[in-house]
Write a structure and sequence with these properties.
411 residues; alpha+beta; Growth Hormone, Chain: A; 3-stranded antiparallel β-sheet; 19 helices
Length: 411
């Protein structure tokens, strides 16, 4: 009897795009791998659900959406005469599938806190190389595209640029789950307007309004969602918890850790001489581990760690003020003195309760690969020059805002 073959070309019902296809068997195999399945347990927006309760979607969902968009983009580019082989299609799909695999728990919030020496892009590359060895070199081309070392540069631009499918998906998806309508973009329209000229992704002129909306939506989403002041307060509280844990470890104090967290926190300068061990330990850590640890730390003997952990669990966040200029040192000093007296904190403990820093962002970089608008006569312009409403200088300007956090109970 003939053995039935498994169908790896699965269809997934995505709440944003509807039914989407997994384009090849190797894509399905990678999705089923334990490294990738971990992304189901990592929220796309970290602690943003403390402000927008619906924002509990995952890196797993986002990545599948990005694969869907890149498949759509390739279909459009082929209809316009751009040569993309099946091998290249599979490789660029693998590159976007794995672009976020290096994210740790709570995504950007704890980046380089658990693994100090490497950011998520560097870790993603390490995962890709490990998977490439496991799958006998089937990711060779995907890695070249990811590293922008392949001769067709526009394929890398689909994965990483100022108008890549990563951004097209996360803006639309994050808007959907947060309910923030300002982030809604016309990703379908933008993709249909894509073309390739001289090995560079461009947008046909009739798609300029969709690109304008994309840039404005990205700007609004950063300040209304990603850098919302309450989200910043929650993230800072999580960072202070880990700062205290690291301090206690340095003092040889007892702090409960999973063996995977112990592997990293006890070896902050860990290198990748044993990359597989590092990846296996890293891939065993997700959001659920952090929550379990924080619940345990909430009853730790250390007063600071216990109080901070309880604050995060019960959403008793720090009061946060945000302004365009640095905060007055005298104001910070007065708040510190008040916190010290009311909360019985010594000088070394105050830094966990009263602190200032800054956040910054721009919407468009005039120095990176630009978004070029293509006109019917073959002329190309940067989107800032082509647009009647966008101010490139303003969009490119990095806006820096300063914040001050302190306990609400000292007000």
């Amino acid at each position: 009897m003939k053995k039935a073959q498994s169908n790896k070309r699965k269809i997934v019902n995505d709440p944003v795009y509807g039914l989407i296809n997994m384009p090849s068997e190797i894509i399905y195999d990678i999705i089923e791998h334990k490294y990738f399945q971990r992304l189901r347990r990592i929220k796309q927006l970290g602690l943003t659900d403390y402000v927008y309760p619906g924002a509990v979607h995952t890196r797993f969902q986002h990545t599948l959406g990005a694969v869907h968009l890149i498949s759509s983009a390739i279909t459009v580019l082929r209809t316009k005469g751009t040569s993309i082989t099946e091998e290249e299609e599979e490789a660029v799909s693998l590159a976007i599938l794995l672009h976020d695999i290096g994210h740790g728990p709570y995504s950007h919030t704890l980046e380089q806190i658990i693994v100090e020496k490497y950011n998520h892009e560097e870790l993603s590359l390490q995962f890709m190389e490990a998977l490439n060895e496991e799958y006998s070199g089937k990711l060779d081309l995907a890695i070249k595209i990811f590293k922008n070392q392949y001769h067709k540069k526009f394929l890398h631009q689909l994965v990483s640029s100022q108008l890549d499918v990563d951004r097209l998906d996360y803006l639309r998806r994050d808007s959907f789950y947060t309910g923030v309508s300002e982030g809604v973009i016309g990703s379908d329209r933008i993709i249909k307007m894509l073309d390739v000229i001289d090995d560079e992704l461009v947008i046909e002129a009739k798609g300029i309004y969709s690109v304008e909306k994309f840039l404005i939506a990205r700007w609004l989403m950063y300040w209304q969602v990603y850098l919302h002041k309450t989200v910043v307060s929650a993230e800072q509280l999580l960072l202070k918890i880990f700062k205290r844990v690291k301090f206690l470890i340095s003092e040889n104090k007892e702090v409960y850790l999973t063996k995977e967290l112990k592997y990293f926190l006890n070896n902050p300068q860990l290198d990748i001489s044993d990359a597989l061990a590092m990846l296996n330990n890293f891939s065993a850590i997700d959001d659920t581990d952090i929550i379990v640890l924080i619940k345990n730390w909430a009853v730790n003997d250390d007063k600071v760690l216990s109080e901070l952990s309880n604050k995060l669990i019960h959403r008793q966040l720090f009061k946060i003020e945000i302004q365009d200029t640095p905060f007055d040192l005298e104001k910070i000093s007065k708040l510190s003195d008040k916190a010290s007296k009311l909360l019985n904190l010594n000088k070394s403990e105050i830094q966990y309760y009263v602190f200032t820093d800054h956040i910054s962002k721009n919407a468009y970089s005039a120095f990176d690969d630009k978004i070029h608008i293509l006109y019917k006569d073959g002329l190309m312009k940067d989107v800032g020059d082509a647009s009647d409403i966008l101010n490139t200088a303003m969009l490119s300007k990095t806006v820096k805002k300063y914040f001050l956090c302190y306990p609400k109970e000292i007000i």
